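Record type: ASSEMBLY
Status: queued
Input:
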Amino acid sequence: MTDLTDLGVAAIRDGVASGEFTAVEVAEAFNANVAAAQDALNAFIVATPEKAIEAAQAIDAKRAKGEALGKMGGVPIGMKDLFATRGVQTTAASHMLEGFVPEYESTVSQKLWDAGCGMLGKLNLDQFAMGSSNETSYFGNVINPWKRNDGGNASLAPGGSSGGSSAAVSARLCPAATGTDTGGSIRQPAAFTGITGIKPTYGRCSRWGIVAFASSLDQAGPMARDVTDCAIMLETMAGFDPKDSTSLDRPVPEWEANLSGDLKGKKVGIPREYRMDGMNADIAKSWDDGIAWLKDAGAEVIDISLPHTKYALPAYYIVAPAEASSNLARYDGVRYGLRDLPDGAGLQDMYAATRAAGFGPEVKRRILIGTYVLSAGFYDAYYTQAQKVRTLIARDFQNAFTQVDVILAPTAPSAAFGLGDKSDDPLAMYLNDVFAVPASLAGLPAMSVPAGLDSAGLPLGLQIIGNMFDEQGVLNAGLAIEQRAGFAAKPERWW
Amino acid sequence: MSSYRIQGATGEWEVVIGLEVHAQVTSQSKLFSGSATAFGAEPNSQVSLVDAAMPGMLPVPNRECIRQAVRTGMAIEAQINKWSRFDRKNYFYADLPQGYQISQLYHPLVGEGSIEIVLDEKDPENSTKTIGIERIHVEQDAGKLMHDQHPTMSYVDLNRSGVALMEIVSRPDMRSPAEAGAYLSKLRTILRYVGSCDGNMDQGSMRADVNVSVRRPGEEFGTRTETKNVNSVRFVMQTVEHEANRQVDVLESGGTIVQETRLFDPTSGTTRSMRSKEDAHDYRYFPDPDLLPLVLDDAFLEDCRNSLPELPDAKRHRYESELGLSPYNAAVLTADVETARWFELLVAEAATKANKQPADVAKQAANWLTSELFGALNKLGVDLASSPVTPEKGGELLALVADGTISGSIAKQVLEKMLETGDGAAAIVEREGLKQTTDIGAIEAVVDKVLADNADKVEQYKAGKEALFGFFVGQTMKAMQGKANPQVVNELLKQKLG
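Status: finished
Output:
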């Protein structure tokens, strides 16, 4: 019998529906993997095996009665611990929210439960989704299940901020997981762990019930083994939500049904500004591979220019912290979460003590940057200027999409790096987002698909950026790469 | 131009006043959540996840609140901005769950407008002044701290947190306490006509931040102070008066005015410093990324405009031109929307019952309401809303006077009985036998008797003391217990006195 934990979303859904195996068998298999890997990988902050079994039993009971099982009936998933889950601790990987148990369920997680998913647990992440390596989590960093094959046995970063999600999917602890992406937090960890992840158009997935980092950039999306699984899960997660004013009021397309790796008549743009000096040779090679595969799939490849690309990262690191500094003001010790009230303290002392104890160094750094760029006298020079840059970057993409259907670029400038390699150098860490951030600023759908292994045997990802609302174009180009890359590698189980 | 001046030791000073009025928008639910807004509910019983700023909660604008603010803007003939945006005003306080207030700094919903105030009710046409309004924006209210629940801790009530406010910002166009008072009263009148705010200042539905500075007449503006949250018309006037005099004292003794925030103390009628400009917050305003710009379409604006009632100035002018009311009566009757509504029902009722045109009974109705009924209710300590005499019953009484069934003086007695018993006018007149008599024979007999009994006065009258005519009328009416038709009495007396 096949190992059920090697199966993805579509295979589990179809197998449960056809009676090949039961949903409970699937849940038990993944629960066992979660438990076995917890000490080594630290991918979950809280495991909820009973929730996974409960949901699976409900699906099996439905099947026994001949009822419909839902779009993802019988598929257990991991939930990034940024999504509020009713009755289950929701921390954003922070001390501030340690022990916080919401009385509400985020719109996206509710849609997944309604579609027949069960929850394996809450996945670790960078604290408040701020980080690219998972090292800012209050609950310890996640370990990438991949190891270098050149003798180095150092622990690698799983990427971030959705590092628990990427590690868990890659290590077969769950067939799929939710992620959120503010400036690459789905795509970069997907690339670092050899899995697939898509950030949809801004507004496709409701932000209601997701702990906010930077409201104008945050988007939820699926992380899974392949493009088809991402299409299925995104269809489940997406949809208009009247509780989110920035939610897109449009129908959700049938992405899975319309998947096609045939790109005849399609044009693919290669942005010259992304080919930077000193680009890692493995990255350059995988990009060239990608170009060849897309041509093979029938697409015409065109060089394009996105002239304002170099301003994207600085603009992002103004806009995102500015919004974060305001979004995180609610964690003040007054109503919920951590309260540090020293003897004889007044209100201001309580704020200071609570926030000093409740936030980690990276979160504090971003609150400070954000507060600074919004201050009187600096606002125009930083925030207003960054918003102008953002408009120019969006315009670059609009112009490009008059010529091409999708854009192909690397996801990240390198493969997974070692834990601790960049944690002392915030700028080096921020540079990891250089290819991911422009699409975030423009609100465009973008995906990372595995493209192969680098010279050290580590997975590399390719990024496809699509026009507003064109997730289908992105998924199809991703599928074309997936069909040709033949990426079958998976991390060896060393834990 | 106001001639209000403060007489200082070194000469005259002029006062410059601007008001920022916070008016709670009348709506069932809050500006960005579905929670109720009722006044006086149990603490924290009207708080949603959004109002408490739980993680991941998002604001969704309440259409009704926007509609009310737009209607208010239209009522002051202001520019309505079809594109506006919400900004966050960031600061930490225990009554502010989000750590920011959602407001509108850069692109308010309503732009420039104006309000006409009347400074002398007795002469409304010749004492008007236009006060400019710079803008109206909508924003969230904060919660409330309760300091009396625990010996060392403060409690927080979030019922008000997120309630919609309109901030109505005037230009610095007022020059005296009276003008400031008249402006606030007029603004409240308009808000109540529009129905966008109940104007209950004692419940905090309306409160004013009072900006005051002084200058030598005609010179540049002086440095201003802002006194926060003043919650009655009288207190606003006291604030202006005290603050202006304080500033004059400071300046005349060689000091300078510090731009600062002050508090009004209602018990002493004075203001005191709260914080100076140096301690002022840096609010780090920026566009709220949780909200899209607010874009109003023509159909929405049309709906707002069509739903506006007749406004106080238009009503006042109509009462004068169409109903023939005195400017004073027109001003008094239109100062409050409920009074005007009551008056219009009264006129309609009286006209129908007496089978006359409204314009034929309006003047009497206005006089009766402003002098008779208001006076009587005042004595009883009852307001118009809870008057035992309804417009229907009042109309019935006026109709009895209009068709000659009773005289004006009998009507006073009838009103007293109506207030006592709650019965209708006709029933009382019938029961008490108060119908006036037009029986010429009966009246003539009495007139003859009065003239015979007062032969000396008849002599004097005939000798030219015509003022005695009223005496004869009075004696006749008295003898007939007021029930004689005064017209018949007059005619008979004229005849007989030659």
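Annotation: The longest helix of chain B spans residues 358-380.
Annotation: Chain B touches chain A through 30 residues (CB under 8 Å).
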